[in-house]
Amino acid sequence: MTQAMQTPIKDGPGALDPDDIELDDELLAAIASAEAAVGAMADDYPAMLVQDVELLDAALTQLTDHAPGTDAHTAACVDTFGVLHDIKGQAASFGYAAATDLCDPLCECVRGKASVSDEMVALLKQASALLSAMAEEGVTDAHAQAVAALLQRVPASG
């Protein structure tokens, strides 16, 4: 195994010229393996997104079924945040940047909340339907436009 070679510092403290860094064969193999695994998972992502949408829909049902201020409503807020956060973090890695774009501000609207308004629940339900369509059809220009339109209605402060 070779070690990374370092040359004298260029352009300031700690700066290395990328041409002067040598990666060992084991590291290159690990990188290739990781890229292959992500590629394989990309094919499975629509099914993963469907599962996340099902979890989101279950949380939204709980938000609707339980009045704000109840423990069940608060738990549903936490569940809603968790699912939106998962989608936000994963979707773009698998070619679903529009899903990440959609979930990012919605995630912030429910972060740390004990209750959400009926209007927010309605927006979340529309987002869920849009995510479901993306899972079934892939991300289209129409989906990206629908995301942009829905985001126009998301309150800045949640």
Describe the overall structure.
This protein is mainly alpha-helical. The chain has a domain at 43-151: HPT domain (Four Helix Bundle (Hemerythrin (Met), subunit A), Up-down Bundle), CATH 1.20.120.160. Helices cover 67% and strands 0% of the residues. It is built from five helices and no strands. Helix 1 (25-65) packs antiparallel against helix 2 and helix 1 (25-65) packs across helix 4. It is elongated and about 60 Å long. 21% of the residues are buried. Mean pLDDT is 86; it is low at 1-9.
Q: What is the name of the CATH superfamily of the domain at 43-151?
A: HPT domain
Q: What share of residues is helical?
A: 55-70%
Principal-axis shape = elongated
Query: Count the strands?
Result: 0
State the secondary-structure class: mainly alpha
Biggest sheet features? none
CA distance, first residue to last residue: 52 Å
Query: Any idea what the radius of gyration is?
Result: 21 Å
Mean pLDDT: 86
For this structure, the CATH topology of the domain at 43-151 is Four Helix Bundle (Hemerythrin (Met), subunit A)
What is the percentage of strand-forming residues? under 5%
Number of helices: 5
Q: For this structure, what is the CATH class of the domain at 43-151?
A: Mainly Alpha
Based on the coordinates given, report the CATH architecture of the domain at 43-151.
Answer: Up-down Bundle
Write down the secondary-structure element order. HHHHH
Low-confidence parts, pLDDT < 50 over ≥5 residues? 1-9
Task: Jot down its keywords.
single chain; mainly alpha; 0% strand
